[in-house]
Write the structure tokens for this entry.
Amino acid sequence: MATVAERPQPAPAPSREVERRRRRRRSALRRQLVALAFMSPWIIGFSLFYVYPMAASLYFSFTHYDILSEPTWVGLDNYRFMFTADAQFWPSVRNTMWIIVFLVPLQVIFAVGSAIVLTRVKRGLSIYRTIFFLPTMVPLVAAAVAWVFLLNPAGPVNRLLGLLHLPEPLWFYDPGWTKPGLLLLGLWMVGQTMILFLAALLDVPRQLYEAADLEGAGPWQRFRHVTLPMISPVIFFSVVIGVIHGFQYFTEAFVVSSSGDATGLDHPIGYPQDSLLFFTSHLYQQGFEGFHMGYAAALSWVMFLVIMVCTLFLIRGSRRWVHYQGGFR
Amino acid sequence: MARRPVPPAIRRRRLLLSIANHSVAIALSIAFLVPFVFILATALMTNQQALTARVWPDPFRWSNFSEVFRAFPFVRYTFNTVTYAVLATVGVVLSSVPVAYALSRLRWRGRQGAFMLVLATLMLPPQVTVVPLYVIFVRLGWIGSLKPLIIPLFFGDAFSIFLLRQFFMTIPQELSDAARVDGASDLQILTRVIVPLAKPAIAAVALFQFLYSWNDFFNPLLYAGNNPDSWTLAVALTQLTTLSRGVLWNLQMAGALLFTIPVLIIFFFAQKVFVEGVTLTGVKG
């Protein structure tokens, strides 16, 4: 019908011109309505589960609110309490920073290392790759429960250490060893990141290595000046995702703390001695065990802002060391 | 390149290098596999043996796997987990496909803006909205049930919308135009033209959502944790010690394996779907 309407006519009667315009407007409106109908699940979901909650949580963060009674406005009290009076806030920040500072780089290094090993074996690659990837498929809770067993003071890991005459730490029962225990779990589950690096390494053009060989570069120089720049976008991606996940670190720590010991007692969040109290654990405890909803909302906004600032910081810094092959940036 | 016989010195060097590479690969493989060996061995032991240093199960107690179902309401937990994972998957697919269609195949005002908002929600840490959402679900009386986990997913999921939209963009516009000329409505174009062509992407979205819900811990803990009848396997696994008033390593490991095995089976059968989905998003992971 559009083709009929647009056929050039010698002298369009004014009424026809109006008719045509009206019809076009009506079809545009129809299109808009059809699109909105298709969009409707998301429009409802976005308003109910994003727009309203974000506005509400910002408002709650300036109130005292325990669900049972109406929220009461307290201004900046929650934020003041957080930074100056909450005895658990700074320990939770310190633990979160610890996990980010150690786990993220170690995971990247370990993932790159294992991926390089995979590029160098010719036969059996697919078997090795499956084995390296297998732990990633284990549901996080199952993996954490399994590592509580593996690292129990009389467990398999300590027996191996005993055979080698190495010290046998108490792992998840010694506040100084809980986070290193979680590092082992994190490294065991590195498969997903490793697969990304494997793909990136296999993408490095052969000619670059050949050129480096011609220039007389040794293995280290080849890695430093060819491999590393070529995989730097994937390193950057892994670091950003790792840092964002690091701020939200929760499940592993919660499972380890709460899985209890021989007496079957349920331990508090962060056990032992708050050594596994992370930012999100703290938020969970304040909001959903203590029902300090206002304070929990304030914690969530601080976390959101810190994640945004860190991400922007990483993106800015990346311009100096991330090499995009397209030459862009 | 002509093949010339390789001099023995170089051949020997290559052999040594290959042995060295395989040694490292095997050592790493052992490091990744040893935990599985201990978990499986312990799952087959008596509880007395699980507390000793002996690694080889003696006697083999295959009955541990059925014992888990007898000692704990594991049937209930499995049922809840399957309910959550299946309904969440259905909800995400049903709601995200039309949204992705509107964002990729229809021309309308505000499309770019809506797409940016979808991406923005993808980046938003879930903690920011969790407090008011909890309050909403308290008001609705949904806490302690699986409803807060499932019903929101019938209103679109940002990651799935993004992945489907990327795939829909690659389907030639002429196919839709041809169907339109034949008088098909947009709903018919979506169900008869786009969906059949987009099966791999829809399969990937369904698979990712199923695994996400199966593994999910935070949401079931938060919304269903106070009611043991609504626990999923993920929540129940962390409570076995408390439930049995003491450590039963053998049953805990058997339970962890029972929880893991469906995921491994799905992975081995759906590897292709998995890889296609990953390459599709371009974000990988």
